[in-house]
Design goal:
Length: about 300
C-alpha cells in the first residue's frame, strides 16, 4: 500500500466507482511520467504559479517518487495509463522518447508514449518511435509555442495518421492561451490529415464548442476529459451546459484523462465530476474504460 496520505480510502472510493459500473478498471489516457529532473521543473513551475497555471494556486496532490506514483495508479485500478511528456524547445524530443521507451519497458501496464517538435529530423524519430512500439504521442502546443500546422510537422502527422497512432494534443487556450492555441491551427492540420487520430486534451478548454465541432466533422478526433468538469476548472472555464447533448452524442469518442499526478485535487474528484454530468452509466463506461480499451486494443 502506498504511503500517500489517505491512499487506502481514496483507492477504495475509486474502486467502488468502477466496480459499480461493472468495469474491469479504468484506462487513463492523460497521466504524466517524465524524466525526474524535468518533472521537478514542472512542479516548481506550478508552485511558482507559472503562466500555464493562469496565476491560480495549483498545489500538486501526488508528489511521490515515480514507482510510488505508478503503484498508486494500480491501487486505483487504472489498467493502462500513459507517460505524457513534451519538449519546450528543439533538440529535446528524441531524448525524451528514449527515456519514455525505458519507462514503458519497466512499466508494462503503461502505454508506450512518445513526443515530437517541429524541427529537422522529426519525421525520422517519429518513425523510429512508432517502430519501437510507441502507442500514443503527446504534443503540447502551448508549452512548445509552435504552430501544429507548421510544415516541418507535416510528414510526421502523415506518418502517425497512416499508422493510426493517437496523438494527445494540448491545443486549447486553457488554462492560459499561447500564440498557436485554439481551434484554428488544429483545423488546418486536420484539413490536410483528416484521418489523424488527434485526442484533444482537456476537452479543448476553454474552446469546448469549437473542438466539439472538429470532433463532429472528423470521425477520428477524440477528446480527453483531463481536468474538465472539475470544481477547479468549472470556476475558470465552465463547460457550456447547452452542449451536454453533444457531449452525450460523442460518447464513443470521449476518453478519461486526469493529469495525474499534477492535479490540485484528489483523483476521485475527476470521476465524480464526470458522474455528476448525469449522462448515464453507459456513457461513463465508454468514457472511463471501453473507448480507450478499444482504441489501444487492450485485452478484454
Ligand atoms: Zn497534462
Amino acid at each position: 500500500m502506498s504511503d500517500h496520505p489517505g491512499a487506502r480510502a481514496e483507492a477504495d472510493g475509486i474502486r467502488r466507482f468502477w466496480e459499480g459500473l461493472g468495469l474491469p478498471g479504468l484506462v487513463d489516457v492523460h497521466t504524466h511520467f517524465m524524466p525526474e529532473r524535468v518533472l521537478r521543473k514542472v512542479w516548481a513551475y506550478f508552485d511558482a504559479l507559472g503562466p500555464l497555471t493562469g496565476g491560480v494556486e495549483w498545489p500538486i496532490t501526488y508528489r511521490e517518487e515515480e514507482d510510488e506514483r505508478a503503484a498508486l495508479l494500480r491501487e486505483f485500478g487504472v489498467r493502462a495509463f500513459t507517460a505524457m511528456l513534451y519538449p519546450h524547445k528543439p533538440g529535446m524530443a528524441r531524448w525524451l522518447n528514449g527515456w519514455a521507451a525505458g519507462f514503458a519497458g519497466r512499466t508494462p501496464d503503461s502505454l508506450h508514449t512518445a513526443t515530437l517538435f517541429p524541427e529537422p529530423g522529426v519525421a525520422g524519430y517519429v518513425r523510429e518511435a512508432v517502430e519501437a512500439g510507441a502507442r500514443v504521442f503527446k504534443a503540447h502546443v502551448q508549452v512548445g509555442a509552435y504552430d501544429p500546422a507548421d510544415e516541418a510537422l507535416d510528414a510526421a502527422w502523415g506518418l502517425l495518421a497512416e499508422a493510426g497512432v493517437p496523438v494527445v494534443i494540448h491545443c486549447g487556450s486553457g488554462p492560459a492561451p499561447g500564440k498557436h492555441t485554439g481551434p484554428g491551427p488544429v483545423a488546418r492540420v486536420l484539413a490536410r490529415h483528416p484521418r489523424l487520430r488527434l485526442v484533444v486534451a482537456h476537452m479543448g478548454m476553454p474552446e469546448y464548442e469549437d473542438f466539439l465541432d472538429l470532433a463532429q466533422r472528423y470521425g477520428e478526433v477524440r477528446l480527453d476529459t483531463t481536468m474538465a468538469f472539475t470544481d477547479f476548472s468549472e470556476r475558470m472555464a465552465p463547460f457550456p451546459r447547452q452542449s451536454l447533448p453533444r457531449l452525450a452524442a460523442l460518447g464513443d469518442r470521449v476518453l478519461l484523462g486526469t493529469d495525474f499526478p499534477n492535479i490540485p485535487y484528489p483523483y476521485l474528484h475527476q470521476l465524480h465530476a464526470l458522474e455528476r454530468l448525469d449522462l448515464g452509466e453507459e456513457w461513463l463506461r465508454a468514457v472511463c474504460h471501453d473507448n480507450a480499451a478499444r482504441l489501444f486494443g487492450l485485452p478484454g
